[in-house]
Amino acid sequence: MTIAKGDKLPEATLMVMGEEGPAPITTGELFNGKKVLLFAVPGAFTPGCSMTHLPGFVVNADKIKASGVDSIICMSVNDAFVMDAWGKQQNAEAITMLADGNGDFTEALGLVLDARGFGLGTRSKRFAMIVEDGTVTALNIDEDGGVDVSSAETMMALL
Known about the structure:
two-stranded antiparallel sheet; globular; 9 strands; single chain; 5-stranded mixed sheet
């Protein structure tokens, strides 16, 4: 079942790149008591994700945060090393690059993308959500392969 507006996020431990390497971080640490804009991509360094999705959030990070968002998180079913390198390559200093390496959190959200036909294995669907104190207040899923309803511009209109 796919998570929906009004649902609490499931508890999970994900990974971010820390000063000494990959470090665990819980959904509680990321979302409790905060307003967060989380967006997920099928894969770091892939064309739509690198040319359109992440750059939209990078360019608009200040505006998004000025709208009352405490943090912007980019998540992918990739490892913390890849997410860190991609964030650096994209100048995404204002964005938390979150790794769901095994896809466990993505699976718990019900937002798994079967990309085996493209040689990518199991990934995350492209989506964006606004989360307030751990509860989903908006959820947009791009079902058609484009970057439309989960774009930075679309999500900014919901803030």
